[in-house]
Please model this.
Amino acid sequence: MALKALDIFKLLPKTNCKKCGCPTCLAFAMKLAQKQANLDQCPDVTAEAKAQLEGSAAPPIRLVTIGTGNSKLEIGNETVMFRHEESFYHPPGIGVVIPDNLDDNELNARIEAVEKLQFVRVGAHIRSDIVAVENVSGQADPFAKTAAAVQKLDLPTVLMSKEPANIDKVLESCKDKRPLIYGASADNWEKYAAIAKEKQCPLAVSEADLDKLAALTEKVKAAGVEDIILDLTSAGISETLQALTAARQLALKKNVRSLGYPSLAISSSAQTAGEQVAECCTYIAKYAGIVLTGLHHPEYILPLLTLRQNLYTDPRKPIQVEPKLNQVGTVTTTSPLLITTNFSLTYYTVEGEVEASRIPSFIGAIDTDGTSVLTAFASDKLTAEKIAAFLKSDAVKDKVTHKKVIIPGYVAVMSGALEEESGWKVLVGPREASGLPKYLKTVWKSE
Amino acid sequence: MKMLEEARGKWVGSLNEVVIGATKQQGGTRTSTVTVGGEKTLPFLAYEGPTKNRPVVAMEIWDREPEDWPNSLMEALGDAVKSPAEWAKKCVEEFCAEMLCLHLMGTHPDFGNASPQSAAAVVKSVLAATGVPLIIWGCDHDETDNEVLPRCSEAAKGEKCLIGAVKEDNYKTLVSFCLADGHSLIGLSPIDINIAKQVNILVSEMGFPLDRMVMYPTTGALGYGLEYVYSIQERSRVAALGGDKMMSMPVICMVGQESWRTKEAKASAEEAAGWGDENTRGVFWEIATATALLQAGSDIMVMRHPAAMTAIKNVINKLVK
Model:
């Protein structure tokens, strides 16, 4: 629970020495409460006060970094149970588990498959952004070999083994990459905690239930490991969902520090692919910081990445693209001109279909305050006047000479008014963007 | 489990329970009925309390053969789609559907313009062919629905169907027929929680019982606005658990309809290189859309592909033990 300025003030030296840059200790306390200052700026604060203040200033769910450099994964530091209350901030890592018992060809093929799990959706690059290596062989050498081969993906890595010595051996060569060590359990936690502390790597901690897990994270923390991931994978999807939700609830609402870490869940392979996809989706929606699966084909992973992208958009911001004339492909003055709105979902759906048609085109994104075609039409934000003004603007004048414009099928009713207003020939396109490739290839071609 | 007890939410309200279908004893001809709603917790959190009634999957059938459904979907359904009664039978006997949603697309002026009489005949044929409860959905063209749905309501009198959809500005005709014929109603509100409540109030002010109403906040497929409906449904579940009786109706989602019109479900292998197997891509899109909406709080999932339906039924059974 965050402290108020006056509570913080009571713990400060009250000397008004100004060494922190603030005129008084109270002013400094106010800045601390607003998180605009750092306690380190006060040279005279007592160790006791420092511990107390740092404890209360820490976020309820710790931010943990796995990996390094551009591909690093940051998870945790979430603040709400429901995205409509504010937003979800740190999208979960979604990754494939690669076993260490594959032969060389299989291993290379698997790594290649994981490399291809990246896509462009609504203008954003989304990908499977973590990878796990599982020591199913129980041997040190195959584990080390597989872990080394996976390095070329340049992704944050999870090293999964029941043998601390096998993990230790792999870490000799890759501890600088900050892989996640998986993981400590009741009977071996001391060894894992020692490795994690020495190699400065995050550590996943597993237990039978939340009570025992909370007790174990306290021990691991006392042993000097700060970056902990809760492994909440339980007997089945129901138990795991409950553990994920309860841990989030307890950390945020009950201030349970021993569960204030990001979580990890692994889907069970003992079910159909469809059920595994559903299991992963459940964990993405409900609070997992890392979701791991044995599935590695794009038709399984693309839905997971898309769901993550959907749920981690900030609901407070209407998502818009810049209202302007956009070009897709190598356009000429005779390329088709399509009209749509500047709602990003609408715009990128249209853009994606135009790209798929392979017919270079202009897309005019009309400023509708980021609303979709039907909503904008209903609220007079997509009108014949507005489109006519756009067609007459300098942006369009020299770029398009044929004076034909394609409008969305849903606003066909404005054709007459728009022809009158603009002097352009109005063509009514399909209602759904998915009809655009066919439309451009047939109707437009014959124009 | 001290921690789980500690995490339990303190809810005061619950969702209304709605029964769909009537057996012979209850004045209909159904061999089974479906009860949805009644939940007192956030979805599937056994530590907050048991799930009163598990969410149910209804398979969507049409009164006419669909034209633009992707091959991977049409192949799974086969020739049965040529006859609504055969299609219904196949869903129940082969795919084990517990409920059907008959979508009267063929009555739309631009899509067949079938007469109210022929639509009512289709309803009767589907009821005769199967024993499961039936959802009857218009073509979302207000004037047509006001002509067609009353005839269907009469044709299915006593069967306790779920009929939709009524809207803020078009509800009176259908409400009076459903009230007289004993059916339940779907209230449509496009991703707007205030309109959803308004529709519920308007319908209940006509004397329609709250426990015969279901909400349809419209559905967005994964990647196509899912996040909006997801949050609307979460907010509406939280409002219901908080005790708002005018937001306590079970929620229906048109998962199949929305999933199967996405590019991910439709695009050929050449159009969507790198997106994976063209024959199963749509199935996983439908599964992912349904799974996410179940977590937001949904009671009736209307789905199209038998494999997707089976997967979701299995997942629901694992989530509610």
Summary: The CA atoms of residues 13 and 243 of chain B lie 4 Å apart. The first strand of chain B starts at residue 17 and ends at 20. Strands of chain B lie at 17-20, 34-37, 56-62, 99-103, 134-137, 162-166, 184-188, 213-216, 252-253, 300-303. Chain B has a mean pLDDT of 96.
